[in-house]
Amino acid sequence: MAKSTLINRLKGPHSPIGLLVAAGVGAMLFTVFAGTVVHWNTRHQVEASESVHHTEKVIASVQQAALQIERIDYRTRLYLLTQNEEHLNRARTSANQLDTVTEHLKMLVSEADSQNEDIAGLERCSREMNREVLSFDRHSTISESQLQECKKTLGLMLDREQALLQDRNKGSQKLSFQSIVTELAFVLFSLLTLVVLFGVLLRDALRRQKLEKATENTNQQLARTIDALKDRAYESEILTNARDELQLCVDVHQVYLTAANSFSRLLAGTSGTLCILNNSLQLVEVGSSWGDSQVNEPFPPDSCCGLRAGQPRWRQPGISELQCSHFSGNPPERYLCKPILAHGTTLGVLYVQCDSSELIQLVRQRMDGLRQLIQLTGMAIASLNLRTRLESQSIRDPLTGLFNRHFMQISLERELSRAARRHQTLAIYMLDVDHFKKFNDTYGHAAGDLALKTISEIFRTSIRMEDIACRYGGEEFTIMLPDMTQESAFERAETIRRAIENLRIPLHGTTISGFSVSIGVAFYPSDAMTADLLLSRADQALYRAKRSGRNQVTAFESTIALA
Length: 563
Hints:
Elements: H1 2-11, H2 16-82, H3 85-108, H4 116-134, H5 144-201, H6 205-248, H7 252-266, E1 271-277, E2 284-290, H8 305-309, E3 313-315, E4 335-342, E5 345-353, H9 357-365, H10 367-395, H11 405-422, E6 426-433, H12 436-443, H13 445-462, E7 468-473, E8 476-482, H14 486-501, E9 505-507, E10 510-512, E11 517-524, H15 531-547, E12 553-555, E13 561-562
Helix pairs in contact: 2-3, 2-5, 3-4, 4-5, 5-6, 6-7, 6-10, 7-10, 12-13, 13-14
């Protein structure tokens, strides 16, 4: 009887053998089920990821098309301004690239019916831009309405794709969350099963504790991995946004503010300053800052250990005790100075202040992202500085800093058109430095250049912001004064004449004086209606002033000379 009871217990549903068999069958079924669920989640995650990647490619192509349109507009304008065929060739290259991008974009959105109308509009835009650029010459202009239509089409496509990208990202995140929850559920279920089995079969608490500890470590490692991935995704998002924002900046001050905002997001909790070398390279000035930065402005480059070393430099207690000397108060205990480089040239230094060891660890973890963001900032600053120099060189006289003759001709046509629209007057001076050749022969060309620079500075300080002073050629100058009465124009010309008459220039231990200028004045619309005729009338007035004894202001066809 006892033997029969023992056998029944061994064969019963709650016996260890029965539990082992049931657990084995359950484990097989669970494995199949888990594999199916994991496969389903993985397949859908891959599909979601491919959809997101495809949408990102479409957005990138749309942005590339927008960039090519901007380049066409920019290069054609530069061509009209400089008459440099290289700019026109680059505009045509951009037009060809726009056509290529359009075809690629058409292929990408071929299955999206919602984009058919927009892609057709973009193809029309591409054809029109190619046609206009191929036939473009110095008398042509790019249709502003065509540009706006192209930008509008691209904006609509970008809005649709970004909305689609947002939806697909949400779907991908939802699938990831479901996958994590499912995997955690599987882990917990597996853990519970193992605990029950080992509890029934072995009653081995020690092994169970070890197993639980191992599982806990695995979960912690998984959590750390997930946190690291999230942090990397956050860092990538900041860099992407920073790159997009920096591309939209039109001057370096916007770059400074955009960069400071990006640095504060990337290194949350820190304080810092973006410090930039000035044009003389003798001082470092504050471009922008975030948090409670203690950098003093301005400071010499040698004040920063990072600039002196030419590489990133940490200051931490017990590691590096040498302090930089560019602080307004007591130096902080922990900070980083990292030079900003672009094309091998040092542009400045990024100062990052860390008030705790945890913030130092954060900065070290994101050092790669910080390096990339500094590169983006340096390239943006260098590009804008280069563009500013090129624009200035194309319209400025290199000796005097006044506008050149080419810019004067363009500005005169523009000011005449504006005066005609607003029913206003326009005064124009033709100025010639008296006996300048004799001065040059006596004192040399270096002294002549110094005199021209000094006289040009008098022009700049004697006119209004809206007036335009140009070097016409040699010692001749032209000044345009929009919306000025004849009486005010003569008074302003007389002020300039007296200032030059009283001019004293120190040279080689002595003072040179005796300068004078003759000024011819003509007015729109009373003297002339066209640019060429107005310049000719002012020039005639100038020669009348010369013939009448120089050092005077003379109006066109006027018998009165103001001296």
